[in-house]
Amino acid sequence: MTGAPAEMFASHPVAASTTADEAAAVLSEVFLPMDIAPADGSPDVRMHLNALTLGRITFGYMHFREAVQIRTTEPVDYHLDIPVRSRMTARAAGSAPVRGTAQTAGVFMPGRPVDLDCGDWFAQVSVMIPRRDLQTELELLLDAPVSEPVEFDAAFDLETTGGRAVSQALRLVDEGSRQARGPLTHPLAVRSLEQVFLHSLLLGQPHNHSAALDSPRGGAGSRSVSRAVELLRDDPARPWTVADLASAVFTSVRSLQEGFRRALDTTPTAYLRRLRLERAREDLLAVGPQRVSVSEVAARWGFLHVSRFAAAYAQRFGELPSETLRRTQRR
């Protein structure tokens, strides 16, 4: 990252490790499961990590003294890796390699493990962005639902206008993190910084929805719809009624329903139902050693009839929830 300070997020140290296993354990806890192997075959890996969470985005700065090779599991979220010292070559499954420098970052998508080959004295800024929050911001920018996940170009040129915007957003986060009573202590300011970063990335790095973002959007009622979408995504488990939602965004039920129809070609109730199906799928995919039943997940997200839930789930995702659960528990 051009002009980046030597060490970002220095007021939020997390850990310092001396072995590959320690480094892998720390980074796995903060970001995602991974294995780390020293390039020279020795067990020694001296790594320092700073990290903080802003809203729902995780920001980190990691520094290795020894050259290392890192292999991640399949990420659930989006990851942005910005080398600030030494060099890095990264390859996500099925993609061309990205040669990371202070001018070129790597953007990595959910579902694709990544191999990183990092040189001596390597340091990078890493950002983990929840998939559903990135989609929320994209839908709010578009005033339209998004059916296809965001697919970024893997190599991010930080010397473009968009790259400089992302770098500036990172500096704002870093500066805020150094202030004891700064903006990161205020929830509204945190939300604003979070949006600045997400918008900078969505508007600055090419992806499969960039053309839609370049098209003019907006219209009567779009603000109410955008705010309603944000409320539903923030708390889909809440027993929302259309009247509750309309009251929360200071509009009438009729106006809100018409706004959803025009902007999203759906209704508030149908949109909330889709959100709950997505959260149910996330729960089924994230099941750990403890078993969970389809009926438990259905009830958690307000689906009282398991058979109707299964039918809606299959229509949305192309498989029954029981099939998702069996596939997850076989891993």
Strands of the widest sheet, in order across it, are 1-3-4-11-6-9-12
Instruction: Estimate the global geometry from the Cα principal axes.
Output: globular
Fraction of residues in H or I helices: 40-55%
Number of strands: 12
Note the beta-strand portion.
Answer: 15-25%
End-to-end C-alpha gap: 37 Å
Low-pLDDT sequence parts: none
Order of helices and strands: EHEEEEEEEEEEHEHHHHHHHHHH
Number of helices: 12
Q: What's the pLDDT, averaged over the residues?
A: 89
Secondary-structure content class: alpha+beta
| Rg, nearest Å | 21 Å
Biggest sheet record = 7 strands, antiparallel
Describe the structure.
This protein is α+β, with helices and mostly antiparallel strands. Helix content is 43%, strand content 22%. It has helices at 20-30, 131-142, 161-177, 187-204, 210-214, 222-234, 242-248, 253-264, 268-285, 294-300, 306-317, 321-329; strands at 13-19, 34-38, 44-54, 57-64, 68-72, 78-85, 88-92, 98-100, 104-108, 114-118, 123-129, 155-157. The strands form two sheets. A seven-stranded antiparallel sheet has the order 1-3-4-11-6-9-12. Strands 2-5-10-7-8 form a five-stranded antiparallel sheet. Helix 2 runs antiparallel to helix 6 (222-234) and helix 7 packs across helix 8. The longest helix is centred in the middle third of the chain and has 18 residues, at 187-204. The relative contact order is 0.09. The mean pLDDT is 89.
Core attributes:
alpha+beta; single chain; seven-stranded antiparallel β-sheet; 22% strand; 331 residues; 12 helices
